[in-house]
Amino acid sequence: MKSPPKLQSQDRVLRFIKQVSTDVVEQQTLEALYDANGTRFFAFAAQNVVDEEFFWRQCSEVFFSVNGVLGPRDIDQIDVQQIEKNWASLGHIVLPLRGRRTVLTVSPLTVAEQSELQPLNVYVPERLEFFNLLRRQIAIGSQSTLNATSTKSEDKIIHWTQSPADNLIIQLYEILLAYEASDVRLFTRGGRCAHVAAHIGEERVLISGEFGELEWGSLEQEGPGRQMFARLASASDCEISQRKIQYGNVTLIDRNGGLQTMRLVMAPLGPSDGGDWEIGLRIISQVGFIPLDRMNLHPRIYRSITGQWPAGAESPRDVLSEMEQIADTEMLGLLDLETSISMVTGSMNSGKSMLLQNIGLLRARRGHHVHSFENPIERLVEGIFQYEVSEQNDWEGWSRFATRNDPGDIIFGEINDRSTALRILGFANGKLVLTTLHTNRAVRFVERLRNLLRDSTGQENHSQIASFVSTMGYVFCQRLLPKVCPHCSHPSPVTARIGEALQWRIRYWRVAGPGCGRGTCRTEGPMQGYLADRIPLTEAIYIPALAEVFLRGDVTVFDLLCAAEQRHQQTYRRSAEWLLDAERPHGGMTTWDKIAPHLQEDRQTMRLLESRS
To answer: Rounded to an integer, what distance in angstroms lies between the CA atom of residue 181 and that of residue 176?
Structure first.
């Protein structure tokens, strides 16, 4: 007969105490600590043992040898591949040991082989980090880590042909892949029918017609729309009867037998059970990572990040001749900075995370220890320590961890409130901090920070703004635009009025065609004549070159853009000219129709510069 779990744990602790110390008085001290503190025992015990390294070695000998699965001698042979999250939000480490797939929970008291565990991966590139992860969990002693492994029941997984609602959800997933959409919103209007809107790049496109009628129905007779919502809720452990915002994961088996995961958030839009709903789904995919040299960045943007011109890029003579005038403002590429805050700004689905991960990856390849704190982790980047922020491990907890472990570089999610902004400002003391901010222009980052850093009375803290500006390196801003089909589009002369207003030298750009069906070229709908691919319209502002302008209290966005143009910074206007140039090899990547909405401020800026001159 097996001993109860509590007695087993107590037995392991007593065995551990005898192994870690041969001194009778010290053993009695440790036993008293365990009796008084329970799971907090390890945090206190570590402070009462002289040889801390020996302490943790002995700890591993007791707790890593549960059921003979893993012993202390195996530690040096372990190649940690990934951490997994199970459906109870517990951490697990997958160990390829002796030809078996062993799952070790972050709780040192639970080791289990769990072949049916569904993974959400978090990459841990070094054995040392594995050891530190276990050490932190032992020291924390949190009750939440002392739970058994759980698996997702079969009725929570969506299968093809299991039900009409399951088929609709899998069909939705396949349509998202076909459109290369990052996420999708399903919502009801008037409690009658469901609509589907996909984010294709930054554009929101209604794709309800792909599904036919998604009638909402009634409580007595549910329609396909309501059935689909209810199935998504049940599969993600949410309840559609609860009128509150809920989060979860949706797991499905696609028609190829592959296991797929989507992140879900559902929010009520009206009162009572018959009120409207909105459900957001985001694909959690490990594929689709685009390296920096294939992101179609302007050569100067590429250089501002790496310090080098991209291989095979057009001759940068014109750009170099201009940059000779500003040698004092762009001395270093972003990868060469050792201490600063650099931001990637933009709207939702503008590719901020992709650019940020590329920068972190290049820093890691140069030997820097890059720690990334994300919510959620949507893509693994080999070489970066990636930590998921959750309700149990929030930003504040991770920031304390980052401070104590002294990482080289920090990628810190997003600045969305005052406390996060101040925390990031504190990190930039001897480190490179990379983060994101929601603005539609790089020069607007100070305007956004001023709003975030207001105190409870609504007053600005000018010293904090000054500290931010003096610590800043680069601010990038990016918009994703649809790529025009190179087969059915055709060159057309640049409109003279537009070319003169923006002071462009290009002669031809491309105009979208009727759609030819080649590759992903669409033959109908709002994206007719465009591919599923996206190309970035990116600007880069080197803040030290404009610091005194940013610190002026009465400065406007047009003043900042005028200063950026006068000091030869890379604005949207310059990047757009390069993207549109149909005479450049591999140029003419998008059309004026798609790029024009983002250049309204640039046109006004050029008019102001002309009037001032």
So the answer is: 5
Question: In the chain, how many H helices and how many E strands?
Answer: 20, 20
Tell me how far apart the terminal alpha carbons of the chain are, to the nearest angstrom: 91
d(CA 393, CA 191) in angstroms, rounded, equals 37
Query: Which strand ranges, in their side-by-side order, compose the sheet holding 259-268?
Result: 157-158, 246-253, 259-268, 277-284, 183-189, 193-200, 203-206
How many Å is the Cα radius of gyration of the chain? 28
In 180-266, alpha helices (H): 224-235
Question: What tokens were used for 584?
Answer: 């450049």
For the chain, which residues make up each domain, given as ranges? 154-284, 292-612
Sign of CA dihedral 116, 117, 123, 128: negative
Q: Give 221's contacts (C-beta < 8 A, 6+ positions apart).
A: none
Per-residue pLDDT of 244-269, as tens digits, reads 888 888 888 888 887 788 888 888 88
- Integer Cα distance of 5 and 16 in angstroms: 16
* Sequential DSSP letters for 502-534: HT----EEEE--S---STT-BSSSTTBTEEEEE
Which tokens go with 302? 């590429």
The residue behind tokens 């003279």 is 496
Alpha-carbon gap, residue 399 to 601, rounded angstroms: 37
d(CA 515, CA 366): 44
Q: What is the pLDDT of residues 363-387, one digit of tens each?
A: 888 878 788 887 767 676 777 777 7
Pick the CATH number of 154-284 from 3.30.450.90, 3.30.230.10, 3.40.50.300, 3.40.50.2300: 3.30.450.90
Q: Chain-wide mean pLDDT for the chain?
A: 75
d(CA 423, CA 498): 44
In the three-class reduction of DSSP (H, G, I as helix; E, B as strand; rest coil), residue 481 is classed as strand
DSSP3 helix / strand / coil % (the chain, rounded to 5):
40, 20, 40
Mode of pairing for the β-strands spanning 409-414 and 432-437? parallel
Query: How is domain 292-612 classified at the architecture level of CATH?
Result: 3-Layer(aba) Sandwich (3.40)
Task: Tell me the H-state helices in 38-163.
Answer: 41-45, 52-63, 127-140
Residues contacting 453, CB < 8 A, separation 6+: 418, 421, 422, 460, 461, 464, 465
Per-residue tokens: 151? 């698996």
CA angle 162, 166, 172 (to 5 degrees): 145
Mean pLDDT on 493-504: 93
Dump pLDDT digits (tens) for 400-436: 776 666 677 888 888 888 888 888 888 777 788 999 9
Let me know if the fold of 154-284 is the same as that of 292-612. Answer: no
Most confident of 51-65, 80-94, 109-123: 51-65
Give 450-478 pLDDT, tens digit per residue: 888 887 777 777 888 888 888 898 999 99
Whole-structure pTM over 0.85, yes or no?
Answer: no
CA angle 349, 352, 358 (to 5 degrees): 130
